[in-house]
User: Fold this.
Amino acid sequence: MTDDVLLSVEDLHTWFELRRFGLFRVGHVRAVDGVDFVLHRGEAVAVVGESGCGKSTLARTILGLYTPTRGRIVFDGTPLNTKDERAMRAYRAQVGYVQQDPFGALPPFMDVRRILDEPLVINGIKDRATREARIRQALEDVRLTPVEDFLGKFPHQLSGGQQQRLVIARAIILQPKLIVADEPVSMLDASVRVEILQLLRRLQSAYNISILYITHDLSTVRFFSERIFVMYGAKIVEQARTRDLLDNPQHPYTRALLNAIPDPDPDNAHRFREVPPGEPPSLLNPPAGCRFHPRCPAVIPGLCDVQAPPDVELQQAHQVACWLHAEHVRQESA
Amino acid sequence: MASNGFLRVEDLVLHFRTGVGTVQAVDGVSFSLERGRTLVIIGESGSGKSSLAKAILRLLPRNVQAYRGRVILDGQDLMTLGEEQFRREVRWRKMALVPQAAQNSLNPVLRIDEQVCEPLLAHQRAPSREAAMEKVREAFRLVGLPVDFLSRYPFELSGGMRQRTAIAMALVSDPSLVVLDEPTSALDVLTQANLMNVFKRIKREFGTTFILITHDIATASDLADDVAVMYAGQIVELARADRFYREPLHPYSKKLMSSVPTLKQEKELEFIPGRPPSLINPPKGCRFADRCPARFDRCSVDPPPAAVDGRQVKCWLYH
Assistant:
């Protein structure tokens, strides 16, 4: 089983120090506060959560852009050492990044050919013919064809969807094992989103690439991921296979999230939607105990507001961090 | 669709002059909306939907090439009013706008209460500052914001709260028509659901008429009584929401509906290949023809709207 694990994230914490006037340490923004999961080869996993839950920080820590405060990341059997420049460069060549704003991700002064050439040159592929062939292959893979039409174009000459395809081409050109996609389609039109997500799915299957797909839009994950992690207040509160999570959500936050998503149904206009009151928690001063407890309809006073719940393994690879499922643990240790 | 609507828009045209040509953003739009109902205008980027909002509220930039048609609100043709009269009597009094990314349009150096009462004081809708503040507090209660946020600055509020502030600003002068341009697009699912509940409550309590402009068909269904689908500066389908959602008729509407991922039902997801036409020199015939799976030879001529099943569909298939 461990043979097909590509990425293992263990007790990961990423904290940012907050200083007033550059001098006085006021506290830490605990953006990732104890995250554990594994990602298998060729698997697509969605990390779902609202803004401010820490999912983008999680993505960037996995990309090596932030140094973990605690815990570790193990990629393809090797723990990441952020202090080793060479190792990190080699690591980054194996992880592609697709971000939310396609136009912001592309240098406006470089044409398509140069944009795709750059990662190859940086990673020491000296032979021009090889680079040219890989550029063509990448453009074919993302269906920016005929290739000749696109090689000389600049980012502003492409539509949003085409720009994002180019970003994806750049992400796959070094044949990575993992792609981290942070809200890859939220800035694109509704009718283009499906195209891009299907493209990522095709690439995943053709090249056995693992995808970590970060989003707040649960309605797309059903089609594009095998498992879902739900993040709230810098922690993962539920992990399950996609079907299981959508059909049988266990955490009250997950249930609230699913309930809040409208399907295009005209009857929606005639009824109010049940939404938990309040706002997502501060990551500087998170609530004591379970971070969702101030908004939870099923809160157990004296427990949820005092002690953080443990991760409970339910059947079929379904894990939830909630006292509703862990009462037996508490009682055993009492 | 009733022809004596609370709001009637007839052949509205708004073209902009630019360096590369004339952008025909709104190209002959007509619809009618009854009091207390919500019309959702669904369109993607480049459809002209934001320009339509601006055209209705007469928030025009300097490079207008053409602006004509009729906008009849409660029996009065607003297009016949002069600038000053429109500003005094209509804008922020009878009609208000919550613009796109409104949460970013709040003045960062003014306290919230200063900003929200500004429309009242600027348009003489309150006899005194104290009366204005009372209306502001009422508007805050309506949108579900705690009144102690009034003394704060925008940066102290989250995105969802700032958006509610912008909505409060639109409501504070008791307008009968509120235009919402993508009111929830940058917000999280739970905040979106919360805001939709706020709009529903306002609809029920005050009978306010809303025009909601969005690309998000699913969220639109939360408020829609009537639906207009906009493509390349024109309305291609206009129907009551229950009929539209159960069965869209125009080929573009059908494709749009099938490209929306749904949680609750199993479906085959589709996308629409190609891109919408440029609004500079739009094609002469039907503007959707080159992406339409049902295209045939008549489509080289721009179809007039056909009346089908109580709705309007701009498509030769229904003639």
In short: Chain A touches chain B at residues 50-52, 159-161, 189-195, 198, 216-220, 222-223, 246, 256-258, 260-266, 268-269, 272-273, 275-276, 279-280 (CB under 8 Å). DSSP finds twelve helices and twelve strands in chain A. Chain A has a mean pLDDT of 89.
